[in-house]
Amino acid sequence: MDKLLLLGDEALAQGALDAGLSGAYGYPGTPSTEIFEYVQRNKEAAERGVHRTWSANEKTAMEEALGMSYTGKRAIVTMKHVGLNVAADPFVNSGITGTNGGLIVAVADDPSMHSSQNEQDSRHYGRFALIPVFEPSNQQEAYNMTFDAFALSEKYKTPVVMRLVTRLSHSRAGIIRKEQLEENAIKLPENPNQFVLLPAFARQNYKNLVEKQKILEKESEESKYNVYHEGKDKSLGIIACGLGYNYVKENHVEAECEYPILKISQYPLPRKMITKMINECDEVLIVEDGMPVIEEWLRGYMDNSLNIKGRMDGTLPRVGELDPAKLRTALGLEPYPMKKIPEIVKGRPPELCKGCPHRDSYIALNEAMKKYGPGHVFADIGCYTLGFLAPFHAINSCVDMGASISMAVGAASAGLFPSIAVIGDSTFGHSGMTPLLDAVNSKANIVVFILDNSIVAMTGMQDSAVTGKIEEICAGVGVEKEHIRVIIPLKPHHEENVRIIQNEINYKGVSVIIPRRPCIHIASKMRKQK
Amino acid sequence: MKKDIILAGVGGQGILSIATIIGYAVVQSDLHLKQAEVHGMSQRGGAVESHLRISDKEIHSDLVPHGRSDMIISVEPMESLRYFPYLKHDGWLITNVTPFVNIPNYPEMEHLLNEIRGHKNSIAIDGDAIAKEIGSPRSMNMVILGAASPFLEIPFEMLEDSIRAVFERKGEDIVQKNLDALNRGRDFAEKYIQK
């Protein structure tokens, strides 16, 4: 078959399609977005009628995928690591209900926080929920593992997490495809209690889930993705997970590594392999691209049993993604000579594009807020978070999806005036509607800006779930119609916009201002369509 | 054969197109390739980089190791210097000299050129001017790729074929302009090497 040049994200998506996928669910989030987009744009997926509409958020996506699994068909749900927090409720419980059709939860972590608020490690979630995790070390594995993940999922009736990291998600390599599997037909669960987590059934299911761990551990022992490479020099053993394995190998290009290496790409941990390494090596270096998950488990709270090196003792940095140079140091190899960055090189942070509607919104907001001083504006996750930077300095918070409105409600109830929320249209659809309901119910004195650029811009132009529905949603939640104001964020409207903002700040209650102008990256396309 | 390359520029300047053209050529051959790129927030007018690795043997890391890059190809002069820690001491620095100024403290051009020329193997080319000359300002990235092409160890015709394949959808005129840009960059570099 032809070799395809694919991103790690795309390789996973192509694998899922070839392994008989019937539905993809997800919410955009860097670095996971391209998994879903690949399915969405795939011609064959369209011909097969594979479900591929973005969901409102990761929780609904996870539940929709579980619903497809319930019917016996194969589903994938995609999200970034912090999206799994949003989906945590159905995710953890899907371990307890188990699955019917194969279910892959594809989560892309972002060590070093290239485009994220934290660098949490989804392997923690796998262990917490007792759900097996695959962690591919390269693009071909990302492709191949989808077949094994669906098979494992259907054999043991468990969801399977596929954990990617940024450097795999967004790196291309050649992929060789396998023979395609047929999609499953609808076949409802044999046990009518399986998906009914009434306490009596939940207790039984949970017991089964705990029991299942032994057999899942055995699967990990026998997995082709967990490999013990023997080595002559037993003064050190290396446990390397996912991409960490590549960085170890990169430092042994000219000569084979003399130390034993245990490559881990399937969890729960293969206990016998780990025990073998601990027993035969004087010291063990643990290499994980993400948090020191395995290292923490093996050290234990007392940290007195083993001679372990890794991120927690400073052999590798505690935070941030790994790279070959960091491994070189950890392995005690001579670093390659490195040139310094000349001092004249200055930082170049990202910025709002020239002509971006958010610029005009912030200029108007700043003017209206001048007399109140700084510290009143709660913002959210999206391009508009860049409004924190020069020249705007317009916002004071960015925490999680939807938190702008909820934090504004909290601050208003503490007596902060004015209390302003700034949220994008898609983020509003994701997690802004429920806090707006809170605001209405508690008669909060806040002004909510819903910046409507008609697209999910930051992640690369995905459809927004609320396009054309925002005013109705706000009115439906209970915001008074005369305090739902649509403005046009453009220079000629500036004076008028400032006046409207001032009026709504002075109104005692919930106001919604919707600055509406399409993102410049879709504006020309939209004009052509008209 | 092994080439480790850092592509550098500012979000929106077209470094990913350079990666696509080289990537397409490599995949047509039997060589291995890994190419790591940046998506998301940093693409909005910030510094962006892509790591491109080509080898006749299996490639492990998606990232080029520090101090091991054979070449920096940059579409912006200040950005070309940001990735010095990756460049081998005898590696090539090929960069556009037209600055992209979107920060208030952008350094003096003269200082930048001194740093660039201070590196032993460097080619500084005005890609924007050449692209304008041939009537295709947006083909600046292909001028820079052309200037880097003598060092790539990929047959030049394969790069030309890639341009034809990748830009085909956009029409024959765009294909020709980009081929033109590539050749102009190549001519510049070859004259420079002969000196």
Descriptive overview:
The complex is a heterodimer of chains A (530) and B (195). Chain A is an alpha/beta fold. Chain A folds into three domains: 3-222, Rossmann fold (3-Layer(aba) Sandwich), CATH 3.40.50; 227-330, Rossmann fold (3-Layer(aba) Sandwich); 357-529, Thiamin diphosphate (ThDP)-binding fold, Pyr/PP domains (Rossmann fold). Helices cover 40% and strands 16% of the residues of chain A. Chain A contains 21 helices and 18 strands. Chain A has helices at 8-18, 33-41, 43-48, 58-70, 81-86, 88-97, 122-129, 139-156, 166-169, 199-222, 243-250, 271-280, 293-299, 324-330, 357-369, 403-413, 425-431, 433-441, 470-477, 494-506, 520-529; strands at 3-7, 21-26, 74-80, 103-109, 133-134, 160-165, 171-176, 227-229, 236-241, 261-264, 266-267, 283-287, 308-309, 377-378, 419-424, 446-451, 484-487, 510-515. In chain A, the strands form four sheets. A six-stranded mixed β-sheet of chain A has the order 2-3-4-6-5-11, with helices on both faces. A five-stranded mixed β-sheet of chain A has the order 8-10-9-12-13, sandwiched between helices. Chain A has a five-stranded parallel β-sheet with strand order 14-15-16-18-17, with helices on both faces. In chain A, helix 11 links the parallel strand 9 (236-241) and strand 10. In chain A, helix 11 (243-250) packs across helix 14 (324-330). Chain A is globular, with a radius of gyration of 25 Å. Chain A starts with a strand and ends with a helix. The mean pLDDT of chain A is 96. Chain B has helices spanning 15-28, 77-82, 109-118, 127-133, 140-148, 156-167, 172-194; strands at residues 2-10, 32-36, 47-55, 69-74, 87-96, 122-125. By secondary structure, chain B is α/β, with parallel strands linked by helices. Chain B is built from seven helices and six strands; from the N terminus they run βαβββαβαβαααα. In chain B, helix 2 (77-82) links the parallel strand 4 (69-74) and strand 5 (87-96). Chain B has one domain (2-194): Pyruvate-ferredoxin oxidoreductase, PFOR, domain III (Pyruvate-ferredoxin Oxidoreductase, domain 3, 3-Layer(aba) Sandwich), CATH 3.40.920.10. The model of chain B has no long low-confidence stretch (mean pLDDT 94). A six-stranded mixed β-sheet of chain B has the order 2-3-1-4-5-6, with helices on both faces. The interface between A and B is large, with 49 and 50 residues.
